[in-house]
Amino acid sequence: MAESHDVRAAVQRVLAESRAEMNQLQETIVALREQMERMAFEKQEAVQAAVVQSSDEIGQLRKTVEALRDRLEQERVTHAEELQKIRQAAREENRILEQMIVALREALERPHG
Description:
Elements: H1 2-109
């Protein structure tokens, strides 16, 4: 009977150790699962943050491009206006010079009286 009791005790001890190991393994599985879920959540947050940051950068770049286009258009208009003024001044100067030439010719062609 003592032998039977020893066998039972050994079986009980092995069962208890097995249960403890199973519990430990289940706890490890739960902890790993939670860690994986945390990592997946953190990864998702990082991706969302990167998307938001990229969207902000794209928005800023679009505003910069728009501002540069506006400035370029203003410069083009200003240049065209200045060019128009220069052409008008040149035409006016040519007109005055032509009048002076005509007056000088007339003066030279007039007999000195």
